[in-house]
Amino acid sequence: MPLSRLERIQPGIAARLSDELADGSLPQSLLFHGRPYSGRMSAAIELGLSLIGEEDAYARLECPDLIILSDRDGTMRLRAMRNHFARQRTRWSLDAMIHETRIELSAFHEVFFSGGDKDAFAAAGELSDVLYEAPDDFDEKAVQDFLSRYDAALARFLSRRRRSGNFTIDQIRAIQAFMQQNAGQNKVVILENIEDVTVGAMNSILKLLEEPPQGAYIILVSRNAGRILATILSRVRQYAFPPIDKRVQKALLRDLYHADGQDDIHDFICSTSGLDMTDLEVRAEDFVHALVTKRTMYDPQALGDLCSHLDQWDACDIFLGKVVAIIEDGFRQDHIDLKRSQKMLCLLSVCQSEAKTYSQNSRTMMERIGRRLVAL
Known about the structure:
Layout: H1 4-9, H2 11-23, E1 29-34, H3 40-51, E2 66-70, H4 75-88, H5 91-105, H6 118-131, H7 140-164, H8 169-180, E3 187-192, H9 199-210, E4 216-222, H10 230-233, E5 237-241, H11 246-255, H12 265-273, H13 277-293, H14 300-313, H15 316-332, H16 338-357, H17 362-375
Parallel strand pairs: 1-4, 1-5, 2-3, 3-4
């Protein structure tokens, strides 16, 4: 059936979308929302490729009529897929690595070039060129030579990309011009985590949704639809993605990644990337102990070391998720009263959201969280 990948992990949504494709009732503006690792982005890509008649391009995503913009930093996913290929050395693991890299490179589509950082575009082009040099034979020397070139190009790309930023009003305007090109030819734009963009960018997205040209499809992907403007929600058809069943996750990890005994995709990505989850847990416990239990400011040098570590591993969201879990556990064990725990959880959510909206670095965000947690 169409959307065969989605059918495996979210059969209900796959059936709904397939029916809408078959009877011509699929809207031009859609919203896929749900928790991370629920298949939202994979579904958006698979549907988008189906709409432009490029279903076979899923593995390597070489599609000029598909644009993906995201405000997330996918460094951990890139490292995980890179390391997975280094270990498995299979065609599938190589394609998974290239697929993940192409998602990051999509923000440097040619339609954005005129208003973008030229050095960042040069670094993106270099990384793209390396992908075309992927080996056909997976002997030791060929793989190591390829990975050496990939690692060097990726490091340059990531350093430039952080400076250039993503999801600007200019990018949304460029997308609008892109959708107007070759009227009637199907084009797809995927915008991930729009709840984290500025109000100005969200208003630009609203204009994008008002009257999309014939053949132009916009798929919004969100972790939290409740933070999206009501005027945007009124212009999209919503598809709620439930968490993927653990048995399905276990089967995917076993069959596709040869990761027997694992049943959580997020944990697999973290561990395969090289991130030490036990160490991160200890750091989160120390953070909560200082700020919540002792109500003392975190040592500046220790905070600097923590932020450097989180930046290196693209693990700030994961770290704060552990902080949230520790606070929730403190409430369940009667170490933190209900009212205070609710205030802390709200504070963490607001600070994290505002840090993304206003492009704060991790140090600024963590200092702000520290001051406000101590004050509660």
